[in-house]
Amino acid sequence: MVIVKRKTLTLAERLYLPEILRGLSITFRKMFQPKVTRQYPEEPLPTNEVTRGQPRLRELTEGHLACVSCGLCEAACPAYAITIDGQETDRFIEREPERFEIDMLRCILCGFCEEACPKEAIFMSTELELAGFTRESFKYGIDKLKRSTEELAPRMEYIKRINERW
Amino acid sequence: MTKIIVNGREVEADPQKPLIAACHDHGEHVPHYCYHPGLSAVGSCRICQVEVKQGEMPARVVAACRTPIAEGMVVNTDSEGAHDSRRECLEFLLKNHPLDCPICDKAGECSLQDYSFQEAQAEGRSSEPRRKLEKRKDLGDVILLDQERCILCSRCVRFMDEVPKSPQLCISGRGSHSVVETWQDAPLTGNYQGNLADVCPVGALTLKDFRFQARVWNLTRVPSTCSECSRGCSITAEVLRDGEVKRMRPRPNENVNGYWMCDHGRFSEGELNRSDRMAPAALRDDAGQLTAADPGDALRVIQNLLSVQSQALLLASPYLTVEEGEAFSQLARSLGRQASFFSPEPNDLRDDVLHTGDPCPNRRGLQEAGLTPMSSDEWAAASAAADCILLVGERLLDMLGDEALAGLPATQRLVVMECRASDHPAVDVAIGVPNRVERSGTWINVDGAAGAIRAARPAPQGVRTIVDLLADLTTTSGQPEEALSS
Ligand code: SF4
Ligand code: SF4
Ligand code: SF4
Ligand code: SF4
Ligand code: FES
Description:
The structure holds two protein chains of two kinds. Chain A is of the alpha+beta class. Chain A has a domain at 55-164: Alpha-Beta Plaits (2-Layer Sandwich). Chain A has six helices and six strands. Chain A has a three-stranded mixed sheet. Chain A has a three-stranded antiparallel sheet with strand order 2-3-5. Chain B has helices at 19-25, 80-95, 111-118, 155-162, 195-199, 263-266, 295-308, 322-335, 363-368, 376-385, 396-400, 402-406, 466-476, 481-485; strands spanning 2-6, 9-13, 49-53, 60-63, 74-76, 137-138, 143-145, 169-172, 179-182, 205-207, 219-225, 234-240, 245-250, 281-284, 290-292, 312-316, 339-342, 372-374, 388-392, 413-418, 429-432, 441-444, 450-453. In chain B, helix 7 packs across helix 13 and helix 8 (322-335) packs parallel to helix 13 (466-476). The longest helix of chain B has 16 residues, at 80-95. Chain A binds chain B through residues 68-72, 74-75, 83-88, 93-95, 118-119, and chain B through 101-103, 107, 135-136, 211-215, 217-218, 241. The structure holds iron/sulfur cluster (4 copies) and FE2/S2 (inorganic) cluster (FES). The site of one iron/sulfur cluster has 14 residues of chain A, from helix 4. Residues 32-35, 43-48, 63, 65 of chain B line the site of FE2/S2 (inorganic) cluster.
């Protein structure tokens, strides 16, 4: 059994008003200091190349994905979030994904897919927001995943830099 | 048997076979490209080197696939010298090898990948450009050749020479200009081309049918038996994500098929992947439409039919397993009728290699289970005389043909237990059954060897096994109707 000892209040505390004034003094002091609260949806979070947001596929300037559907990210993904089916192309690189699906509800933003990719085709973007009305809508296909090389360029640079360090 | 010492262990080796076979038989893996247990050994790739000490001579590194067994040999598969030679050999193989693994269909089951990893050959030392060759060379309907990936082991050439005995491939050119080719680029022919993709240790020869269909590590592999002829080759059925059968490959079995299977069987997965499956149960309603029904109700209707109609014809598909054949025989006995299985005409695929030309994979098994074969002429006579027909098993409707059903008298009742959906107007009751990758059982091949089929994926929702369905019909058929409805 736990016995909680009640503290006996001092006279000043029992008088009530001094304590109220002490509390309000803190409130008034803080009113003139810089604000730290962020108005989140209107005021987005700051991001940079280190931000590990949702994975996105890189589209090359020729209009197709850099991904060759090798399936390494699918194999590396600890959350089993990725599903890929390949198909033949008529380009020199013979293979491309027919279906590339990431279940964003499963994705834990770990970045293993980015690390596994031998083709610089999947990168962690700065996109962090995720909302939808049905579970199905969180299964992102190629159309929702592809981003231009420029958009992903800062992250690509950063990854190259840390890879050289190893 | 000869006694040799492999990695410090004394083992019995077959003197008829090369040293590499003895090592493999006793669980010591020796890398190999050109050696294949089903083909003659040529010793051209040199990856299989092991250290051998014989008598008083100093230990030397030899190619295990070309070294005969000798009494008292001391073999070390793991010596420094052997690893060095393998590494050098790999370096030459990789010198001109394209960096194709991410798009190569062989990745994941490629010997070049495996041994490079195993022998720690991680980085190349040359910076010269790699050899440029044809990457999509068409070798007929089955096989695509990527000449850049070829390591010139000549397994494919020897396979064509030795197994189907139809030499069509050769290695032409000399030195680094050598490539695998057919004479004047003629397409390959024959019923055994698919095996080329299996014998090729790298991704040079690949199946067109399987091209970019799946990454091999995503496939669930289940041992099974081929259904397309009475040889019943042992195979592995490979299923992607519990769904489509993506590939069927031979499984080594000395007694039946060796290491091979024919293309006719290999590419028979289309039937297994069809989406128009029969519903678990359907009955013809008052409006004359075949509509989904409660499986229990449908079974009761069949029981009533069988107990009322005295001239029932019980016909099974030739794909029924021994176990299902037994259950079918039992049902027939309880009704006092004779069970038969449909025996299609032999086809013209018979050859001296494997194919028997008889499309019934379980002819012997079904006959032993007490079923009699029924040819299509016999079927025509028997079906006209029967007042009720029970057809059980996959592909039976296709074998009989729609016309055969259309000719049946209108008063006759037709019960069908099939895999593929049918809305043929003659069908009164339809029950869906699992196909051969969704159920387990045994087939007996033409020589009496048993071949197991194994469920590689779940059957469609609500579909029960044929044995269960037939057992339910047997326990209650012949009883009066009151007993059934209570
Ligand atoms: S970030 Fe991690 S969890 Fe998400 S898709 Fe990539 S590997 Fe999978
Ligand atoms: S690892 Fe890269 S190239 Fe391979 S499938 Fe994933 S995104 Fe595509
Ligand atoms: S043959 Fe093997 S090593 Fe060569 S590209 Fe294909 S998987 Fe890679
Ligand atoms: S194609 Fe394959 S089996 Fe034929 S020689 Fe080349 S690597 Fe060997
Ligand atoms: S496997 Fe022995 S030399 Fe090729």
